[in-house]
Amino acid sequence: MNNEEKYITIIDEDGTEVLAEVIFTFINENENFVLLTLTNEFDDVKSLEDEYNVLAYKYEELEDGTIGNLIEIDEDDEKTWKVVSEMFEAFEDADFEV
Questions:
Q1: What count of other Cβ atoms lies within 10 Å of the Cβ of residue 57?
Q2: Residue 66 and residue 51: Cα distance in Å, rounded?
Q3: How far apart (Å, rounded) are the C-alpha atoms in residues 41 and 32?
Q4: pLDDT tens-place string over residues 28-70
Q5: Which end of the chain has fewer CB atoms at under 10 Å, N or C?
Q6: Distance between CA atoms of residues 78 and 73, nearest Å
Q7: Around Cβ 54, how many Cβ atoms within 10 Å?
Q8: Which of 34, 3, 39 is nearest to 21 (CA)?
Q9: pTM of the predicted structure, to 2 decimals
């Protein structure tokens, strides 16, 4: 992913375009993953301790290195969800600048 690509537009279940902020991307076993949050949720967030939803997808990387097609992760794919969960926990535990 291009480091300058902090926001992407996704289509929600109602077919509405929604702006999402990319939290981070990672590669595991030659598959690309992105964790993101919907920017409209930040209206209710008062501090970093407030809860917000994090969405996880696999994605196809475009030739220019940006995020292409988002691919839903099967809810029954326990192995993949374990990897995603471990990566997110490591991200939360690290001292990253947000």
A1: 19
A2: 28
A3: 25
A4: 999 999 999 988 765 655 555 557 789 999 999 999 989 999 9
A5: C
A6: 10
A7: 15
A8: 39
A9: 0.79
- Domain map of the chain by residue range? 7-93
CA distances from 69 to 29, 59, 64, 82, 92 (A): 18, 6, 13, 22, 26
> Helix H segments across the chain?
78-93
Q: What burial class does residue 33 get, using C-beta atoms within 10 Å of its C-beta: 0-12 exposed, 13-18 middle, 19+ buried? A: buried
**What is the gyration radius of the CA atoms in the chain, in angstroms?**
14
Distance between CA atoms of 29 and 16, rounded to whole angstroms? Answer: 32
**Lookup: tokens for 86:** 């471990």
